[in-house]
Amino acid sequence: xxxxxxxxxxxxxxxxxxxxxxxxxxxxxxxxxxxxxxxxxxxxxxxxxxxxxxxxxxxxxxxxxxxx
Length: 68
Hints:
The structure is a single chain. By secondary structure, the chain is an alpha+beta fold. The protein has a domain at 34-63. The chain is built from two helices and three strands. Strands 1-2-3 form a three-stranded antiparallel sheet, with no helix packed on it. It is flat. The mean pLDDT is 91.
């Protein structure tokens, strides 16, 4: 089994959530986001505010992924 590590270099957050974070709470603990595939690509969605954070159009390119 492949051991995965977090390789994220820059996080994406809901700007409204960032403004509302209580003192002493990290974005990781406060934010409520979903990420998934769409017909065109990948979308990141804020559950708390029911708003789009990012929508990536892969322009028809196939992507690979590693199952865990």
